Amino acid sequence: MNYCSACGAPVTKKVPDGDNLPRFVCEACRAIHYHNPKIVAGCIPEWNGDILLCRRAIEPKSGLWTFPAGFMEIGESIEQAAARETFEEAQAQMERISLFAVLSLPHIGQAYLVFRGPMRSSDFGAGEESLEVQLFSLSAIPWDQIAFPVVRDVLRRYVEDVTRGEFQVHVASLPDCL
Ligand SMILES: [Zn+2]
After folding, report:
1. Number of domains the chain is built from
2. Does residue 122 sit within a domain?
3. C-alpha 54 – ligand 1 centre gap (Å)
4. In the predicted model, is pLDDT for residue 120 greater than 60?
5. Domain limits at 112?
6. Is residue 30, in this structure, part of any structural domain at all?
7. Domain identity same for 75 and 156
8. CA of 13 relative to ligand 1 center, distance in Å
9. Would you list the DSSP string of 56-115?
10. Which of 74, 69, 71, 115 is nearest to 89 (CA)?
């Protein structure tokens, strides 16, 4: 950030009085601009034991696979965001969704809330941000072509739960080495 979004004056980065972290502070209007982590809503759509994955058409990681996921918008709930992303990226509608994983990525200031659940029908297709969308059996997940470490981690947990025969809600923090 270079300029104050409230008054347009240059901002400086410093620790405000009573705070303990550096912030962008406007010396002109005294506004303090906080940058906080973003929430990513994701969904693992299920159909007859398979899961629906999307091959990304956009950078970063264009051409690699992920489950539908994207930034939550103001005005929607986290579960609405997960269902919306699923429809936008995979043109699939969810019958219902359950929380599956809460993963913090402190090094990049993001938190992933990932849901899972059955699709309403077998209808799906590539949305604007997808090159292709495909159902995968769990033994055919393209592990060497997964877009992000967090996606790989969530899918690994998913396969483990299916193998064990019981879903749990996973809460974890991914180290930046992943
Ligand atoms: Zn200002």
Report:
1. 2
2. yes
3. 42
4. yes
5. 38-173
6. yes
7. yes
8. 13
9. E-SSSSTT-EE-SEEEPPTTS-HHHHHHHHHHHHH---BS--EEEEEEEETTTTEEEEEE
10. 69
Ligand 1 ion: Cβ-proximal residues, 5 Å cutoff: 4, 6-7, 9, 26, 28-29, 31
Distance (Å, rounded) from C-alpha 175 to C-alpha 178? 6
Amino acid at 23: R
Average pLDDT over residues 14-23: 95
Report residue 151 as tokens. Answer: 């996606």
Look at residue 114 and give its three-state secondary structure: strand
98 and 130 share one domain: yes
CA of 106 to the centre of ligand 1 (A): 28
Pair (101, 119) in one structural domain: yes
Confidence of residue 175 (pLDDT cuts 50, 70, 90): confident
pLDDT digits (tens, 9 = 90+) for 73-116: 999 999 999 999 999 999 999 999 999 999 999 999 999 999 99
CA distance 14 to 137: 51
Asked whether residue 178 is domain-assigned, the answer is no
> Do 116 and 127 share a structural domain?
yes
Q: In the prediction, which pLDDT does 176 show? A: 62
